[in-house]
Amino acid sequence: MKQNTLTAPQVPSAATDQLIPITVAHGDGIGPEITSAVLRVLDAADAPLRHNVINIGKAAYERGVTSGISPDAWKAIRETKVVLKGPITTPQGGGYKSLNVTLRKALSLFANVRPVKAYAPFIDSHHPGMNVVVIRENEEDLYAGIEHQQTREVAQILKLVTRPGSERIIRYAFEYARAYGRRKVTCMTKDNIMKHTDGLFHRVFNEVANEYPDIESDHSIIDIGAARVAAQPEQFDVIVTLNLYGDILSDITAQIAGSVGLAGSANIGTDVAMFEAVHGSAPDIAGRGIANPSGLLVAATQMLVHLGVADVAQTIKNAWLKTLEDGVHTADIYREGRSEHKVGTEAFTDAVIERLGAEPSTLTPVRYQSGGIDIELSPTPQQEKALQGIDVFIDWDGAGRDPDVIGEGLEEAAKAVNWRLKMITNRGVKVYPRGLPETFWTDHWRCRFLPADADVTSFDRVLDLLGALHGQGWDVIKTEHLYTFDGRRAYSLGQGE
Ligand code: NAD
To answer: Among 77, 220, 272, 340, which residue's Cβ finds the most Cβ atoms within 10 Å?
Structure first.
C-alpha cells in the first residue's frame, strides 16, 4: 500500500550512470553562500546527484506569492522528492505564511529529525560527551489544531494519536538507528497519565522494538526523561517521541550542546524529504563571506544517507570533523588559543574538500550503513468494537452548581428512555454520586450514561437519550462514545469512578 510505505529513492547503478535528482533551494540571507559551498563539497566528493534549482522564500514573497513557494517550485519538489534547502527569511506581518510550516503540512513531513552533538574539545560545550538525536512525530498529537471553547469557562483541544502515525515514526527511529550505527532508541511518553493516547504510542514502540533485537530500547516518562536529557544528555542516543514533547526536547538538546550553529535537521515524509540547517538566514552577516556552512553540510550528509549513498555521506562528514579538529574555524566558532585558522566560508569549504578521504583522530569518525531508510507499516489489526455507553458533556450553571441537582435531573431524564446515569465528573473528578466537598466546579459537566438493561447499546438508543436530555432543557455541548475493542475498555475512568 503506497500510503503506508516510505522508500528512499534508489541509488543509481554505476552501469546506468544515472544521477539522483534533487531539488536545491538556495534560500535567503546567507543561504546562497552556504548552499553554494555545500554543493561544491558534494561535487568534490562525487556525490551522484543532479541539482534542480528552485527559487523560494524572499524572491517568491516579493512576487506576491504569500506562501513563499510558486507552483513551479512545488512541481520540482514533487518530481525529485528530495529538497536541500537554505534558510529562508520569513517577512514580518503582511499576511505571509511561514514557508517551513507550509512545506511540513502540505508535504506531510511526518518526522522531524534533529541530531545534536558536542565537538569538544574543539568547540566549547558543557556536555562534551553529548551525541543525541531527537526524532519527533510532526503531524499528530496536540498539533492537529482541533480546539473548541464550548462553555464560558472551558476550552479544550483534541489530542490525536494514531496507530499508523505512531508506527511510522517509531519504525523510522529504529531504521535511523541502524543506518547511522546507533545502539539505543529511547521512547518518551506520559502514559502513566494518558493511558490511551500516549499508551498507544508506548505499546506500538514495544511491538516495533521486538523486531530490532540488534538495537537496545527503553522507555522513560517524559518529565523525568527531559530532566535527565538536560542534566546528563550523554546517557541518551536516539529519542523518539510525540509532537509536543519532541518540540520541547529538540530545543533543549540544541540549547545545551553549544553547537546549534553546526546542526542539521531533516523533515521526512512518505513521499518527500527536506534537509536544512537548524539556524536561520542570518541577515546580519549575509553577503560578507563569513557564514559557517556546517549546518547545511551536516544536513546534506543526512540527505545522502536517506538516499542510500552512505559512503559519500561518511567521507564528507569525516572530512568535516577533521577540519574542525585541525582548528580551521569560521568566525562564529573561532576561539583565540583553541582554534588555529580563522577562515571565511570559501576557505572553510576548501579545507573540507582538501580533507575528503581523511578521518578525525580525537573526534570519533562516523560509520554509516548503506541502503537508505525504508519503512513498511503493518496492517492495523482487526478488532471487535462494541458501544457500551456515552459521555454527554453539558454546559450548566444553575442551582449554585450543586452536583446533586444536575445528577438527579439527568437521572430522571435518562430513566424515561431506559438509560442510567453512571457518574458525573467536573474536570475529570467525580462529583456525582458522592463527590468531595473540596472539588472545584466549573460550568462543564461530563455525564456518563450506560444502558439500564444491557451491556452494549446502539447509536439509535444514544439518539433517544440525547433527545430526552434536550427535551428536558439540558444544554448538550458534545458527546464521546464509550467503546470496548476486543472486550478491552477503550476509555478512561473518572477520578474516583
Ligand atoms: P539566525 O539563526 O538566522 O541568526 C542568529 C545568530 O546566529 C545571528 O547572529 C547570526 O549571524 C548567527 N548565525 C546563524 N547562522 C550562522 C552561520 N551559518 N554562520 C555564522 N553565524 C550564523 O536567527 P534569526 O536572526 O532569529 O533569524 C533570521 C531569519 O531566519 C528570520 O527571518 C527567521 O524567520 C529565519 N529562520 C529561518 C529558518 C529556516 O529557514 N529553517 C530557521 C530559523 C530562522
So the answer is: 77
Cα separation, 122 vs 128, in Å, equals: 10
State residue 277's pLDDT score. Answer: 95
Place of cell 588559543: 337
Atom 37 in ligand 1: residue holding the nearest Cα: 280
290's CB contacts (< 8 A; 6+ apart) are: 330, 331, 344, 345
Cα 48 to Cα 11: distance, rounded to the nearest angstrom: 8
Which single residue is written with the C-alpha cell 434536550? 470
Cβ distance 263 to 116 under 8 Å? yes
Evaluate: CB of 89 within 6 angstroms of ligand 1.
yes
Residue 63 has pLDDT above 70, yes or no: yes
The CATH number fitting domain 385-489, selected from 3.30.70.1570, 3.90.226.10, 3.75.10.10, 3.40.50.720:
3.30.70.1570
Ligand 1 midpoint to CA 169 (Å): 28
Could you tell me if the CB of 280 is within 6 A of ligand 1? yes
Do 186 and 149 touch, CB atoms closer than 8 A? no
| 3-377: CATH topology | Isopropylmalate Dehydrogenase (3.40.718)
Query: What pTM was computed for the model?
Result: 0.89
Q: Tell me the CA–centroid distance for residue 395 and ligand 1, in Å.
A: 47
Average pLDDT over the chain reads: 92
Q: Which atom of ligand 1 is nearest to the CA of 34?
A: 18
- Give the Å distance between the CA of 277 and the centre of ligand 1: 9
Q: 91 CB less than 6 Å from ligand 1?
A: no
Query: In the beta sheet, which residues pair with residue 393?
Result: 446, 478
Domain residue spans in the chain? 3-377, 385-489
